[in-house]
Amino acid sequence: MTETIYVLNGPNLNLLGLREPEIYGSDTLDDIAGRLEDQVHGTGHSIDMRQTNHEGMLVDWLHEANAEGARAILLNAGAYTHTSIALLDAIRAITIPVIEVHLSDPKTREAFRHTSYVGMAAVKTVEGHGAKSYEIALTHVLDGDI
Ligand code: DQA
């Protein structure tokens, strides 16, 4: 049976590749999705990659991943990471392990990025490796670390 790994992306990540490339690099979300697809090839897992600019949509997708019995969720909630108690509650409300992902390392940036509500509930955080953060997080799932 194929196990699905949801990769959920929040606001402004649709602009990856164009958006502040000096911070986030030049890969687009499609480039990242392609590499994650390659990584799961032949492992019995599939990737369900999504992006939204809307907080409530992320909450709905977390619930959906739970209802569908996903293997794991990689979540880059963008700026909602630092503001969203709704996301914290949603991650706590579900039983699927969530890995927090960031391209940059928010802890080395502005003070308002130092709090992570997502990180308060996630099982692991991978940040600061650029687009590779996604691949590292996926490796943790495929290796059975979580
Ligand atoms: C980000 C870091 C957040 O602070 C920021 O708001 C983003 C991107 C990252 O991947 O580095 O939108 O989540």
Architecture overview:
With 146 residues, the chain is of the alpha/beta class. The protein has a single domain (3-142), classed as Dehydroquinase, class II (Rossmann fold). 34% of the residues lie in helices and 19% in strands. The chain has helices spanning 21-24, 29-40, 55-67, 85-93, 132-142; strands at 3-9, 45-51, 72-76, 98-102, 124-127. Strands 2-1-3-4-5 form a five-stranded parallel beta sheet, sandwiched between helices. The longest helix is centred in the middle third of the chain and has 13 residues, at 55-67. The radius of gyration is 14 Å and the shape is globular. The structure holds 1,3,4-trihydroxy-5-OXO-cyclohexanecarboxylic acid. The site of 1,3,4-trihydroxy-5-OXO-cyclohexanecarboxylic acid has 10 residues, from loops. Residues 12, 76, 78-79, 81, 102-104, 106, 113 line the site of 1,3,4-trihydroxy-5-OXO-cyclohexanecarboxylic acid.
Oligomer: single chain
What sequence of helices (H) and strands (E) makes up the elements?
EHHEHEHEEH
Give the CATH level 1 class: Alpha Beta
- Largest sheet properties: 5 strands, parallel
**Strand adjacency order, main sheet:** 2-1-3-4-5
CATH architecture: 3-Layer(aba) Sandwich
Report the strand count: 5
Integer-rounded radius of gyration: 14 Å
Q: Which residues sit in consecutive blocks of at least 5 with pLDDT less than 50? A: none
User: How many domains, as an integer?
Assistant: 1
**Morphology:** globular
- Main structural class: alpha/beta
* Average pLDDT metric: 98
Helical content band: 25-40%
- Give the full name of the CATH homologous superfamily: Dehydroquinase, class II
Distance between the ends: 19 Å
* Small molecules bound: 1,3,4-trihydroxy-5-OXO-cyclohexanecarboxylic acid
